[in-house]
């Protein structure tokens, strides 16, 4: 199964017409992009690019693969966007879930309402900070 990075490399090479320019666009090295393309070609058992004196051109298989790669990258981006919408901000998923449980509200719109919890059951990040313990991230920041 191709990696997300390999699909990004194929799309960048198709858009720029050059492995070197794709590497610059992706903030990567030319050999790394070439390696990703080569792994895709091995997996597909066919050439996706035709190397020319000045740049590269997609083969028919390459054009078909790029169209599917674009859809796959768009789907993965949409999945991450949906997850972020349900899980809160990065690094706060666990505390969002705990707060959602504590306040008996779903963490994600459309999720079923959570069962009530008794006061004092479980850990609540705000209570931990109030009593001086803090969260793990707070303890790391303090040293």
**How many alpha or pi helices?**
7
Please tell me the CATH architecture of the largest domain by its name.
Orthogonal Bundle
Poorly predicted ranges: 110-118, 121-130
- Please give the order of strands in the largest beta sheet: 1-2
Question: Mind telling me the CATH class of the largest domain?
Answer: Mainly Alpha
Rg (C-alpha, Å): 23 Å
Q: Which class do the helix and strand fractions yield?
A: mainly alpha
Count of all domains: 2
CA distance, first residue to last residue: 42 Å
- Strand portion, in percent? under 5%
On the 0 to 100 scale, the average pLDDT is: 76
What's the CATH superfamily of the largest domain, by name? Winged helix-like DNA-binding domain superfamily/Winged helix DNA-binding domain
- Can you tell me the overall shape? globular
Q: What is the chain-wise order of helices and strands?
A: HHHEEHHHH
Q: Main beta sheet, described?
A: 2 strands, antiparallel
């Amino acid at each position: 199964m191709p990696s997300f990075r390999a699909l990004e490399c194929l799309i960048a090479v198709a858009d720029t017409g050059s492995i070197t320019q794709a590497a610059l666009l992706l903030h990567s090295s030319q050999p790394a992009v070439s390696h990703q393309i080569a792994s895709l070609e091995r997996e597909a058992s066919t050439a996706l690019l035709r190397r020319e004196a000045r740049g590269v051109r997609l083969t028919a298989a390459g054009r078909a693969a790029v169209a599917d790669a674009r859809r796959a990258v768009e789907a993965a981006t949409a999945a991450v966007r949906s997850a972020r919408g349900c899980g809160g901000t990065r690094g706060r998923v666990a505390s969002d879930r705990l707060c959602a449980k504590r306040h008996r509200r779903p963490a994600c719109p459309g999720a079923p309402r959570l069962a009530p919890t008794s006061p004092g059951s479980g850990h609540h990040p705000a209570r931990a900070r109030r009593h001086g313990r803090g969260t793990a991230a707070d303890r790391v920041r303090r040293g």
